[in-house]
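From the shared-data thread, chain only:
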Amino acid sequence: MIPFDAGPHPATGGRFTIISFRGQDPDAVYIETIGGELLIESEGVAQYRRVFRRLNADALSTEDTIALIGRMAGS
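Structure, as tokens:
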């Protein structure tokens, strides 16, 4: 969970899934859009990996997430 006080994050444009394959197949990013599905390969994957690393850095720990949800449920 990323708290509101962390400010805007780099994935506000929508959800994405980074897909890694075994063997020779290149990694890809799967995105569902209002116009349909989009599959990004090659150099485009690196941008989404950077976004994912930033999300992980900004996210609360598991313990802090549980505590925040508990506080929100109690109010």
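Residues 44-58 form the longest helix (15 residues).
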